[in-house]
Amino acid sequence: MDSTSTGWNDIYLPEMATLLRSEPMTADERFFECKLDSGKELGHMPGQFVEVSVLGIGEAPFSISSSPTQTGSFQMVVRNVGNVTHAMHGLKSGDKIGIRGPFGTHFPVEDEMRGKDIVFICGGLGRVPVRSAINYVLDNRDDYGEVTILYGTKSPAERLFLDEVEAIVSKENVKYLETVDRGDEEWTGNVGVITTLMTDMMVDPRKTVAVICGPPVMFKFAIMSLYKMGMVDKNIFVSLERHMKCGVGKCGHCQIDGLYVCQDGPVFRFADIAEVQEAIQ
Ligand SMILES: Cc1cc2nc3c(=O)[nH]c(=O)nc-3n(C[C@H](O)[C@H](O)[C@H](O)COP(=O)(O)OP(=O)(O)OC[C@H]3O[C@@H](n4cnc5c(N)ncnc54)[C@H](O)[C@@H]3O)c2cc1C
Ligand code: FES
């Protein structure tokens, strides 16, 4: 959980990396695969993020979407919303970016989650960091119990990683359920917010861990549904997103109620932030 794992004196110094792949995923999101020029592994855990710099433009934080079980490169998904992200969408294979990190806390895949049934709840871009944990769990399938993946997007066109669904559902004891806020002519699946997938769901609260990442409005309702299943705050992990600058607990940009989301998070045990109302609004 050390967010300064690159060493105290080089946390501000980006390492150069090369893009191996840069591909469109949806109208707004692009997939990137990169490799550090030093040849070293990134050395991240699922749920952590990196600060990416585009030369001459600026720097922004992005979740690492690949699992550490995939070595030799790492992956990100970037939504085009402003200066840095727009510049990133213009990059192609072979182009250089700067990387600082990995930073922040991670999902406890090697601690509390091991041996447990796991419910992954992801909304929209929340799928990006959660994918790292999903792939980690599926790559170490025997170490975990039943896995349920709930994924909600606004529309069918916004779904990410569709090409991975077949491999996910082919694994034993893995359920994959999707919903969209609004369907289209071709959509025959569930329509409604993500909690509509949880109405008839049963879990054994004594041996289940839930992981949630998505838009803030989703947290409150997803957690209420988990409570109805008997789950308690200490077994729920959430990943929060806040505006960040330094990414390493120095500038105060990401602070909520004394918590530094970049360093104390982005992954929090819900029991530790349940009182911090701003965290889930
Ligand atoms: C820990 C963490 C992980 C993230 N992971 C991803 C990811 O995997 N993929 C991804 O596409 N994005 C991710 N983001 C959000 C991403 O960092 C922002 O979209 C990015 O900083 C925008 O930079 P920009 O220069 O393109 O936009 P700017 O030109 O700075 O801003 C454009 C617009 O985006 C808004 N904005 C900027 N930063 C944020 C933010 N953090 N949250 C909400 N709105 C913001 C601004 O208010 C403005 O309206 C993550 C953020 C954090 C803190
Ligand atoms: S981003 Fe600077 S303190 Fe968190």
Rounded average pLDDT: 93
Strand line-up across the major sheet: 10-9-8-7-11-12-15
Q: How does the overall form come out from the CA principal axes? A: globular
Radius of gyration: 18 Å
Structural class: alpha/beta
| Largest sheet properties | 7 strands, mixed
CATH top-level class of the largest domain: Alpha Beta
Number of H/I helices? 5
Here the CATH topology of the largest domain equals Rossmann fold
How many discrete structural domains?
2
Q: Tell me the CATH superfamily of the largest domain.
A: Nucleotide-binding domain of ferredoxin-NADP reductase (FNR) module
Structure description:
This protein is an alpha/beta fold. The protein folds into 2 domains: 15-103, Elongation Factor Tu (Ef-tu), domain 3 (Beta Barrel), CATH 2.40.30; 117-239, Nucleotide-binding domain of ferredoxin-NADP reductase (FNR) module (Rossmann fold). The chain contains 5 helices and 15 strands. A 7-stranded mixed beta sheet has the order 10-9-8-7-11-12-15, with helices on both faces. The protein has a 6-stranded antiparallel beta sheet with strand order 4-3-6-1-2-5. Strand 3 (49-54) and strand 4 form a beta hairpin. It is globular and about 50 Å long. The chain starts with 14 loop residues before the first strand and ends in an 8-residue tail after the last helix. It binds flavin-adenine dinucleotide and FE2/S2 (inorganic) cluster. Flavin-adenine dinucleotide (FAD) is lined by residues 49, 58, 60-63, 76-79, 81-85, 125, 128, 241-244, 266. Flavin-adenine dinucleotide is lined by residues 49, 58, 60-63, 76-79, 81-85, 125, 128, 241-244, 266.
